[in-house]
Protein: Outer membrane usher protein papC
Organism: Serratia fonticola
Amino acid sequence: MSLQGGMTMTAEGGAMHRAGMAGGTRMLIDTQGVPDVPVRGYGRSSRTNAWGKAVIGDVSSYYRNKASIDVNKLGDNAEATKSVVQATLTEGP
């Protein structure tokens, strides 16, 4: 068995994620502690971890990016009040 991926940690939390370009731009998604929420950027979807965090690795610096909750895969007992966010990432913390 082999694994490939990365881990992103910040003061707000962190998550493991699929491998992307080394040193590439990533977006940390926070669902305020709600686990197992399906989120996606422009690539394949992933799910938030036990602390409600997910990392999307397919984003660009200096261009508008979009992250969304995949409402088609959202559980029946969950509701998304804001399912899409957009951000232009210009620099790190």
